[in-house]
Amino acid sequence: MTIRSTLRRTAIAAVAAASALALAACASAGAATTDSAADNPYGLITPGQIRVASLGDAKPYTFTDENGEFTGFDVELFTDVASRIGIDDVVFTGQDFSGLLSAVANGQFDVGVAAIGITDERKQTVDFSEGYLAGYLTVMGHPDAGIGDVDDLAGKRLGVVQGTLQEAYAVKNFTETELVRFPDNNAAISAVNSGSVDAHFLDYEAAKEYAAQFGLVNAIDIPSFDAPAGFAIAKGNTEFKAALDEALAAAMEDGTWKELYQKWFPGSPMPEQYLPKAEQTSAPTEAPAE
């Protein structure tokens, strides 16, 4: 056997071995990818855990109790929905509302849960689950503030939380009113109590809580039926959205949604579109909460 023949056979063997290793590596990578997708079908930041961006002061939707734990209608509803898709590890973290959607969009959180009204503008940043809540917008202030209708807002200083539907509505409709922007409802209500603003524009249910706590009044209640609240998720996560929608529908149909609504919004009108189908009697209407 010549040296050239021996080298040629050695080279062929080396190529064959390298090809086998490459094929094995590809097969291993494919299996790892498949296993990863199976372990984390919803593309969560941490498999088996849902990280939630929320608000700590939006009672009765999302807020922290005396122990610093998140609670409220949205918190209990989302926790139930998460359990239905097989995830019990749900971690809520408080955010300023103005930055909440971008935090979900850029992957800091898996979902935003804070009675977030679904609008075309917000859909440019994130995707949403189906709607799950309807309500009213409210202007509230001191009983002696002299505000009884929209015309009375002319020349007044009105608080709004930056980034909310209330801010967008006020910019469009309260053109003779000076808007003062706040990071959250607590800061705005403090400004009402100190007299630095005349009133605050917020959600109807949240307004009820502040009225009871500080002796404020709901001066104007404005129905708005075009932006139901939904869970916000990163764009393109279709598996997660489909799972949330299916679980949300189940929570409505078996009466869980109704039970939570009666617990957190006692005495408030109940939007029929979220009740079990057997209890619906009229065409649905929808409205935002934040």
Question: β content, as a range?
Answer: 15-25%
Structural class: alpha/beta
Number of strands: 13
Oligomeric form: single chain
- Give a quick account of the main beta sheet: strands, pairing sense, barrel closure: 5 strands, mixed
Gross geometry:
globular
Mean pLDDT: 86
- What distance lies between the first and last C-alpha atoms, to the nearest angstrom? 85 Å
Percent of residues in helices: 40-55%
Q: What radius of gyration results from the CA coordinates?
A: 26 Å
| SSE series | HEEEEHEHEHEEEHEHEHEEHH
As laid out across the biggest beta sheet, the strand order is 5-1-6-13-7
Spans where pLDDT lies below 50 across 5 or more residues: 1-8, 14-24, 26-35, 283-289
Q: Helical stretch count?
A: 9
Describe the 3D structure.
The chain is of the alpha/beta class and 290 residues long. It is built from 9 helices and 13 strands. The strands form 3 sheets. A 5-stranded mixed beta sheet has the order 5-1-6-13-7, with helices on both faces. Helix 2 crosses helix 8.
Give a brief rundown of this model:
This protein is α/β, with parallel strands linked by helices and 290 residues long. The chain contains nine helices and 13 strands. The model is unreliable at 1-8, 14-24, 26-35 and 283-289 (pLDDT under 50).
How are the elements arranged and paired?
Layout (H helix, E strand, L loop, with lengths): L2 H37 L9 E6 L2 E2 L3 E3 L5 E2 L1 H12 L4 E6 L2 H9 L5 E7 L2 H4 L3 E2 L7 E6 L15 E5 L3 H9 L4 E5 L2 H10 L4 E5 H11 L2 E7 L5 E5 L4 H16 L2 H9 L26
Parallel strand pairs: 1-5, 1-6, 9-10, 9-11
Antiparallel strand pairs: 2-3, 3-4, 6-13, 7-13, 8-11, 8-12
Helix pairs in contact: 2-8
